[in-house]
Write a structure and sequence with these properties.
325 residues; alpha+beta; 12 strands; 36% helix; globular
Length: 325
């Protein structure tokens, strides 16, 4: 696929949408030095070209009482039909929050929301029932913390917005909140008026409920899904096993990730790999420059590492089916 060249204004528009996909175009216009109409035109063009895939809502799922599990699968005798069947299974599963095709030592990465270990075990058993004859190996981990960072490489910055993943107080959603989240989870750009019309609510109620969901630390933000290949970037995951990890060293590693323009997520696990780092880079050369820097800076704690190239198949922080009519 040929890379679509973006100018500085396009990159900044993508950046500010990724910071807050619900902010009005007039606000973005002031930040990038264009008219509101020019910003709208560029956004529509990037949607038409498929650079912007959709607008989504970031949720702090532990606040809703969910545990977050990640499983890597290595298949045997895999072909395109099996790949498609597995991806479609994950897309249709109402507890799968994230799914990627992997290139490297594993074939798929899947994140699953569960209320407890038994529910997660039921999911694994269901996967094995359907695809067990094709699965050669699996690696299961529980996510302890996974802050996500804004795409600073789009505008040349270093420290941007952090989307947190932390429990402060567990919450129970009422039916109206569930309906709102069901709509904006994959359509974060919809206005309060559009949401209200779909749910037969008043605009004031919709605005108030969204405001409260943010106040309760359930909604972390609103972002855009970008087709990275179209803008010349590739999505990678670095998996690390560690040794002699102290709180001080962990905090240093976190700070490194938080302030690196190409790193988009730091993930702490209970499982085979203690730490995973996700990046979006313009070249393989850039990836290995970053990896070498990490290995040099944190040589005393890095035991082993693995590199996976990823293709995102699904990302939906609220994948549950909710009747909205």
């Amino acid at each position: 696929m040929d890379e679509i060249k973006l100018d500085v204004k396009d990159r900044k528009i993508l950046y500010y949408l990724d910071i807050d996909a619900r902010q009005p175009s007039s606000k973005i216009a002031k930040k990038v030095g264009l008219s509101k109409d020019a910003v709208n035109y560029r956004i529509q063009k990037m949607l038409r070209l498929g650079i912007i895939k959709h607008f989504y809502t970031v949720l702090n799922t532990p606040q809703l009482g969910f545990m977050h599990f990640n499983t890597l699968f290595r298949f045997r005798n895999i072909n395109q039909t099996i790949k498609n069947n597995f991806v479609n299974y994950c897309k249709n599963n109402q507890k799968v929050i994230w799914c990627t095709s992997c290139y490297g030592g594993w074939d798929f990465g899947v994140s699953f929301l569960a209320k407890d270990l038994n529910e997660y075990n039921e999911f694994i058993q269901e996967v094995l029932n359907q695809f067990g004859k094709n699965i050669h190996e699996k690696s299961m981990s529980m996510i302890l913390d996974s802050p996500t960072y804004s795409r600073e490489y789009l505008k040349g910055g270093k420290i941007g917005k952090e989307f947190k993943y932390k429990v402060s107080k567990k919450n129970t959603l009422d039916q109206t909140e569930k309906k709102i989240l069901s709509i904006i989870s994959q359509n974060a750009e919809l206005t309060a008026i559009e949401i209200a019309n779909k749910l037969k609510l008043t605009t004031d109620i919709v605005r108030y409920r969204i405001k409260q969901l943010k106040k309760k630390n359930i909604i972390q933000g609103f972002r855009i899904s970008i087709d990275l290949e179209k803008i010349g970037y590739t999505y990678y995951k670095l998996l690390f096993t560690l040794k002699d990890l102290t709180i001080k060293k962990e905090n240093e590693l976190r700070e490194y990730c938080k302030t690196h323009p190409y790193i988009i997520q730091f993930i702490k696990y209970l499982g085979n790999w203690e730490i995973q780092i996700e990046l979006e880079v313009p070249s393989e050369k850039k990836l290995f420059v970053i990896l070498e820097d990490l290995r040099n800076r944190f040589a005393e704690i890095i035991k082993t590492y693995e590199v996976l190239r990823l293709k995102e198949e699904k990302l939906n922080y609220y994948p549950f089916e909710v009747q909205t009519t």
